[in-house]
Amino acid sequence: MPASKPERGPAWLVLPTYEEASNIERLVTDARDKLPAGAQVLIVDDNSADGTGRIAAELAEREESIHFLHRETKEGLGPAYIAGFRYALAGGAGLVIEMDADFSHEPAYLPRLLEAAEHADIVIGSRYVPGGGVSDWGALRRAISKGGSTYARLALGLQVRDLTGGFKCFRREVLEAVDLSAIRSRGYAFQVEVTYRAIQLGFDVVEVPIVFRDRQTGSSKMSRSIVLEAIWRVPLLRFGR
């Protein structure tokens, strides 16, 4: 008789926030409707001034499956995700999903990522595979985004089309194997670095198509320093520095 497949822990959705008071409650509600039974939601807030943390704390107090992690300072996307990953792993997560908190990533795609995670170590919701795309962006921003992914792919010698995408699902084993304490990227280069390190360890990646849309409320967190970090840090990954 074949051995039974070990039971996987619940899926955890990690949502890093900074000044997302206008989005967070509706996003959590929509996401929970698309997640399987037993899934957990973790909001990681970097001391937002607009009351995001207060809303998150209230949500966590009302629902056992919603968790809130308050961070005292704004350190960037990378450190927030690492704190969230560690929290989820400590909570017994079998799968860890990351997504933006501004509705750029549609909660309707969550089942697609989870289904693909049955057969892959990392699943990326990809803008740059057939069926994927971007809406609400002008030609310049589209060119910068796609150019950034192409730059990272060529610099690192990878086949992944959307290396800078932030809508991902990781199996627990991936985040346990990747040395989270060694990750230095703070902005969107974090997405490239985690995926690259995982591939170097032998984990496989599958991309599923999504349509990314621009945020409807609030302001973008993109800055010149984030872009510059990605430009100089990506080549250093290739040379192991």
Throw out a few tags for this protein.
241 residues; alpha/beta; Spore Coat Polysaccharide Biosynthesis Protein SpsA, Chain A; seven-stranded mixed beta sheet; two-stranded parallel ribbon; 9 strands; globular
Could you characterize the architecture of this molecule?
This protein has 241 residues and is α/β, with parallel strands linked by helices. Helix content is 39%, strand content 17%. The protein has eight helices and nine strands. The strands form two sheets. Strands 3-2-1-4-7-5-8 form a seven-stranded mixed β-sheet, sandwiched between helices. A two-stranded parallel sheet has the order 6-9. Strand 2, helix 2 and strand 3 form a beta-alpha-beta unit. The longest helix has 18 residues, at 139-156. The N and C termini lie far apart (48 Å).
